[in-house]
Write a structure and sequence with these properties.
This protein has one helix at about 1-15, and strands at about 20-35, 40-45, 45-55, 55-70, 70-90, 95-115, 120-140, 140-145, 150-165, 165-175, 185, 190, 195-205. Strands 1-4-5-6-7-9-10-13 form an eight-stranded antiparallel beta barrel. Strands 8-11-12 form a three-stranded antiparallel β-sheet, with no helix packed on it. It is elongated, with a radius of gyration of 20 Å. With about 210 residues, it is mainly β. The chain has a single domain (about 1-10, about 20-205), classed as Porin, CATH 2.40.160.
Length: about 210
């Protein structure tokens, strides 16, 4: 994970050398996670469908902002608590009590760059994440639980506004690497990437 970060910073170093005002501060907000689609499998003649649900989490951490010639660079280091929530449907009949919930916490470093148009900012960049902890609960008997990777790489893109020391951002986050594999239920492997897609709303205060 260290090599992509180093390469990214080296490529940006000529721009940062001429950077304008530097500000740093705190940020926090909410994450709204969901799966890209339902997951379907067959076990013992029964059709199993994991129905995706939205999971709401949060994040808090540090943010920096550097502006130069109508462009900006915004590195961050944030603690993120998120997860994925799924309900199980068997042969077309939904069992409301049957669910699988995975929660995990990681340390993320988004590195966003983009353009500034007045107070409006449009940016994108990679996000590197280090898994800190995870837990799962389920009313379904799991023969095999997932294995999660310690490090993952994703991307963020979005828009924000900056009024003086106030930052407000709305972003979409997707994954470029897998967080982990799926689970085994009723002898059938339900294979899926455990890292959900996220909509991220955050507010920051620079000093």
């Amino acid at each position: 994970m260290k090599k992509p970060i180093l390469v990214f910073l080296i490529l940006l170093s000529p721009l940062l050398a001429d950077a304008g005002p530097f500000q740093a501060g705190l940020k926090g907000g909410l994450n709204f996670s969901s799966l890209p689609s339902d997951i379907v499998a067959t076990a013992n003649g029964e059709r199993l469908t994991f129905l995706r649900d939205t999971y709401s989490g949060y994040h808090i951490g540090f943010v920096a902002s550097m502006s130069f010639m109508g462009f900006f660079f915004q590195p961050e280091l944030v603690y993120v608590s998120t997860g994925r929530d799924m309900h199980l449907q068997i042969s077309g009949f939904e069992h409301e009590d049957d669910y699988y919930l995975l929660k995990y916490q990681h340390l993320s470093m988004p590195l966003l760059a983009g353009i500034s148009i007045g107070p409006l900012r449009l940016g994108a960049g990679p996000v590197f994440s280090l898994l800190l902890n995870h837990s799962d609960t389920s009313t379904i008997q799991l023969e095999k639980r997932p294995h999660l990777e310690d490090t993952t790489v994703g991307f963020q893109l979005g828009a924000g506004i900056k009024f003086g020391s106030l930052l407000i951002d709305l972003r979409y986050e997707g994954s470029l690497t897998r967080l982990g594999n799926g689970v085994t239920i009723m002898g059938t492997r339900m294979d899926f990437d455990l890292r959900p897609r996220q909509t991220i709303l955050s507010v920051g205060l620079l000093f």
